[in-house]
């Protein structure tokens, strides 16, 4: 068996096109332009690249992009004051504070100061609680992207056995909540799960988000299962640096029915869903219907 490759790059391009079409209609019919504010503290190289890509794709979707780049020694009081100003700005519908923050800043405090309605990362404790109780919330971007791809591949997910390997607040836990919301039977596993291979082999949907390179191998995959690889790990192989996922791609692809590659799988969906969340936040703030197919 050769797995169908789920092309996250192409899927993300389609999501961005849908967002852009909705934004164009909002501008024409309502005179509204969704706005995304991104706050970067310090000069972490990876974060700088990520923020630049977010800004570019925000503008390409027809949205307003507000970038705030602050020095690494910015005080907590100054950062909180900026967040308060963005909360009060009617032109800003989404606020994202890029993580990680410098060590002297309390990330939890900063994130929970963001207006939950503008928390397009879905990290605010209120949004976490709403998602966990099955209520309308802002959903973390990476799990939302995974859900979109799974719905596209399977149609209805109800009744499928899903195993999520990883228990982080950013991916593992919200991914499990989303799958529960679509009536999957969900198991959360992790690096300390007893007989992890056997647990994984029961999965019709296997989501790997554990942060360990190539930890999930082909013998852990149920024949015909859908494998979503959230991991992005930089390793050295044959004297060259390369990116690999949490899944050993070659062995898993020989068994699975469908699989996401790394790179080019889940990764591109994160920014696409950030734009979708900003659009959703704008619609909710103005009492307008939410865009179909772009929310959980």
From TrEMBL:
Q: Where is the Tetrahydrofolate dehydrogenase/cyclohydrolase NAD(P)-binding domain?
A: 140-284
Q: Where is the signal peptide?
A: none
Q: Which gene encodes it?
A: folD
The keyword Nucleotidyltransferase belongs to this UniProt entry's keyword annotation: no
Gene Ontology cellular-component terms listed? cytosol
Q: Which GO terms describe its biological process?
A: L-histidine biosynthetic process; methionine biosynthetic process; purine nucleotide biosynthetic process; tetrahydrofolate interconversion
Q: Which reaction does it catalyse?
A: (6R)-5,10-methenyltetrahydrofolate + H2O = (6R)-10-formyltetrahydrofolate + H(+); (6R)-5,10-methylene-5,6,7,8-tetrahydrofolate + NADP(+) = (6R)-5,10-methenyltetrahydrofolate + NADPH
Which superkingdom is the protein from?
Bacteria
Chain sites annotated for binding NADP(+)? 166-168, 232
Pfam families this protein is in? THF_DHG_CYH, THF_DHG_CYH_C
List the keywords (alphabetical). Amino-acid biosynthesis, Histidine biosynthesis, Hydrolase, Methionine biosynthesis, Multifunctional enzyme, NADP, One-carbon metabolism, Oxidoreductase, Purine biosynthesis
Against SUPFAM superfamilies, the record matches this protein to: Aminoacid dehydrogenase-like, N-terminal domain, NAD(P)-binding Rossmann-fold domains
Its EC number is: 1.5.1.5, 3.5.4.9
Q: Any keyword Hydrolase?
A: yes
Q: Which organism is it from?
A: Fuscovulum blasticum DSM 2131
GO MF terms on file? methenyltetrahydrofolate cyclohydrolase activity; methylenetetrahydrofolate dehydrogenase (NADP+) activity
* Pathway field: One-carbon metabolism; tetrahydrofolate interconversion
Record protein name field: Bifunctional protein FolD
């Amino acid at each position: 068996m050769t797995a169908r490759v789920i092309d996250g790059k192409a899927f993300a391009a389609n999501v961005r096109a849908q967002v852009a079409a909705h934004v164009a209609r909002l501008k024409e019919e309502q005179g509204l332009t969704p706005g995304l504010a991104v706050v970067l503290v310090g000069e972490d190289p990876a974060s700088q690249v990520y923020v630049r890509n977010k800004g570019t794709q925000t503008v390409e979707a027809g949205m307003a992009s507000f970038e705030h780049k602050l020095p690494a020694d910015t005080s907590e009081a100054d950062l909180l004051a900026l967040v308060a100003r963005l909360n009060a700005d009617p032109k800003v519908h989404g606020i994202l504070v890029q993580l990680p923050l410098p060590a002297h800043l309390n990330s939890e405090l900063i994130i929970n100061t963001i207006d939950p309605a503008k928390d397009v990362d879905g990290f605010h404790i209120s949004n976490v609680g709403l998602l966990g109780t099955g209520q309308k919330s802002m959903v973390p971007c990476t799990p939302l992207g995974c859900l979109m791809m799974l719905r596209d591949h399977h149609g209805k997910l109800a009744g499928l056995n899903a195993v999520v390997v990883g228990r982080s607040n950013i991916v593992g836990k919200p991914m499990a909540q989303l799958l529960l919301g679509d009536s999957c039977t969900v198991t959360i596993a992790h690096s300390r799960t007893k007989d992890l291979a056997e647990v994984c082999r029961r999965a019709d949907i296997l989501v790997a988000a554990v942060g360990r390179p190539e930890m999930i191998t082909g013998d852990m995959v149920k024949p015909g299962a859908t494998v979503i690889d959230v991991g992005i790990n930089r390793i050295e192989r044959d004297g060259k640096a390369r990116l690999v996922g949490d899944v050993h791609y070659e062995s898993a692809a020989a068994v699975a029915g469908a699989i996401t590659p790394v790179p080019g799988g889940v990764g591109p969906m994160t920014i696409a869903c950030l734009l979708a969340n900003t659009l959703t936040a704008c619609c909710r703030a103005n009492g307008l219907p939410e865009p179909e197919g772009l929310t959980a």
